[in-house]
Amino acid sequence: MSMTREGRICSFCATPGGPGTDVPLIGGLGAQVCESCVDTFHEVLHDPERVAAARATMPWERMTDPELLATLPQILASAEQNFSFAQEWVEMLHDRGVTWAEIGRVLGVTRQAAWERFAKKSASKGATA
Fold this sequence. Notes:
Blueprint: E1 8-9, E2 16-17, E3 25-28, E4 31-34, H1 35-45, H2 48-56, H3 65-95, H4 100-107, H5 111-118
């Protein structure tokens, strides 16, 4: 199984990027970040006044209700991307022969719970945990 950045979004601004686009993405463990966000964060991190302002309040505390509403789909898209990454990660582990019991143990759930959450339902009609 091959995990790629194709079809991914920046976890910070939700801009679609990756292969086949003009927006390179970097990152790992589900989170992806675009070049523009990296540049912005770099500028903030090297300006003590901007760092202090960023630490003073959370971004959503400065947002209007319409801005919060407009951001909600981006948050959900990022969450779905992270779940998709977790799904791919579990599939990779299972393809390598790691058991559902081992996967469940590290997730703090039973073997059955891990299987129910991550097993591909369409491809495993007759499969058992």
